[in-house]
Amino acid sequence: MPTELPYAADAEVSLSYDELEVLRTQYEKELAQAHVTTQTKFNYAWGLVKSPLREHQVEGVRILQDIYRAEPARRRECLYYLALGYYKMGNYEDAKKFNGLLREKEPTNLQAQSLGQLIDRKAATDGYIGMALAGGAAAVGALLLAGLIRRAARK
Questions:
Q1: Cα–Cα distances in Å, from 138 out to 125, 127, 149?
Q2: Strand residues in the chain grouped as ranges (E)
Q3: Kind and range of the H or E run holding 76
Q4: What is the spatial distance between Cα 17 and Cα 98, in angstroms, rounded to a whole number?
Q5: Contact 60, 45 (CB under 8 A)
Q6: Distance between CA 49 and CA 153 in Å, rounded?
Q7: Least crowded by CB within 10 Å, which of 11, 18, 43, 117?
Q8: pLDDT in tens, 96-133
Q9: Which distant-in-sequence residues (6+ apart) come within 8 Å of 82 by Cβ?
Q10: Contact 59, 74 (CB under 8 A)
């Protein structure tokens, strides 16, 4: 389901296996040397967040959070990908939080504006689905209860 929001293309575009493998190899090489540069961490986290695999997204968000905490000068560039990672994992509250922080710093950022629209749409859709499921469960419960009451009244 491609987005009609061109600036939020990161939400649907993943790196190829080979591209992600290049980033992973660099990260692991530096890790083995006991010095991973912030740029290598960021590149690897960026690739992981863009992945369609949840375990990659979780790891990417974890690395981005580490960078966000440890490198104040790099916080701005982490905000969008943290928001994107949380969005892709279905955690819309945190996605809104990080995207909101970016939009406070850069109100005209088109990526953040587009991602904000995607987050709002998906959160609303999931909310409607949740309400529909809850309503369906309540209806089934009411039917079962009515059947039990009817059966008890016959005896």
A1: 20, 16, 16
A2: none
A3: helix 75-89
A4: 28
A5: yes
A6: 58
A7: 18
A8: 999 999 999 999 998 899 999 999 998 887 655 455 55
A9: 61, 64, 65, 68, 94, 98
A10: no
